[in-house]
C-alpha cells in the first residue's frame, strides 16, 4: 500500500495534471435532461470513415492520473473469497464482502477530494470538446476506439466520484435516470449515455468482441479498469490483456453442473458478437482460456449469462468507516492508518500474492507485433 505521502501526492498530482489540460475557459456543468431522446440517425455520424486521417489525441494526462488512482489487485486465482470477519468488538462489518473481492483493479475513490472530483468533470468536458474539434469519425479506427473507451471510463470515474460513498454504481441516478442509461455526455451535439457508447457506437462498428473488455462499469463484476490510458498504439494490447484477465476470472466464467456460467456483460453484447450463442461464445472464450477455463468449456454443454457482482470497484466498499487500523506485515507497520475494511482487504490481497509466489503461478509473457526486415508492415488495427 502506498504511504500517506504518496497518496497525498497522488491526489495533488492528479488534480494538477487534469487541470492543466482542461478547457481554457472555466468549464461549467450545464444542467441537462438525461431523458432526452437520441435517434439512431444521430449515431450514424460516428460511423468510422473508410478514408481516415492521421490525427492523434494525446492521453498522457489520463495515463498519469490512472497510474495514481488505480490500485492493482493482481490476477485471479479462481478461488472464492470467504466471508470476512467483522472488526474486533464490532457486530457490523465494513468494507468488501463479495466472493469476487480479490479480483479486478480498484479506483481509490475514498482518497478523492472536492478539487480532484471537479477536475474529472472538467476533463470529461474537454474530451467532449475534442471529439467535436477533430471530427471523431475521421480518425483512424484505433484512434476512434481509444477515444470512445477513454471517454466512457472518464465519465464513469467522474460520476462515481461525485456520488461516492455509494455501495453500487447502479444506485446512482442522474435526473432520475440510472447512471448507465443517463445521457449526460455530449459529443458533436449528440447526447450519449455510457451504454450508448458501447451499444450504439462501438459494438455496431467493431467486429472483434474483445472491445467489450475496454469498458469499465464501476463494479467488481465487470472488466477491470486498466492502469494505462488507451491510445491508438496500445488499444489492441490492452484489450487482449483485459480479455485474458476477465475470461480466466471467476466473475467471467464458472462451471455449475453441465452449464457454463458467464458474466451478464456477454448478454449485452449477444446481438453483436454472439448471435449463434453457444458456438460464438465458446469460440471466443476458448481464444483466451487458460487450462482451468478450457476444462470448464470441455465439461459443459450449455451456456447462460448469469454471473454478476454490482458492488463498487473501490477499496472501501463504498462506505465511510468510523474506525481505522494500521496496515502491518509480519507484525511490522508498513502503512498509514486506513479504514479497517480496507486494511482487511489489503491483508487478504497480500496473502493472495504470497500464495501466487508459493505455488509458482507468476509470469505473464506479452508478445507485441514486430516487423522483421523484409516483412510487410504489421497492422495492429482492431477490426
Describe this entry's structure for a reader.
With 383 residues, the chain is an alpha+beta fold. It has a domain of 255 residues. Helix content is 38%, strand content 11%. It has 12 helices and 11 strands. Strands 7-8-9 form a 3-stranded mixed sheet. Strands 1-2 form a two-stranded antiparallel sheet. Strand 7 and strand 8 form a beta hairpin. Helix 4 runs antiparallel to helix 5 and helix 5 packs antiparallel against helix 6. It starts with a helix and ends in a 25-residue tail after the last helix. The relative contact order is 0.16.
Write a concise keyword list for the protein shown above.
about 375 residues, 11 strands, disordered N terminus, 3-stranded mixed β-sheet, alpha+beta
Short précis:
This protein has helices at about 5-20, 40-45, 60-70, 115-135, 140-165, 195-205, 235-245, 265-270, 270-275, 275-290, 290-300, 340-360; strands at about 70, 105, 175, 175-180, 185, 190, 255, 260-265, 300-305, 325-330, 330-340. With about 375 residues, the chain is an alpha+beta fold. Strand 10 (about 325-330) and strand 11 (about 330-340) form a beta hairpin.
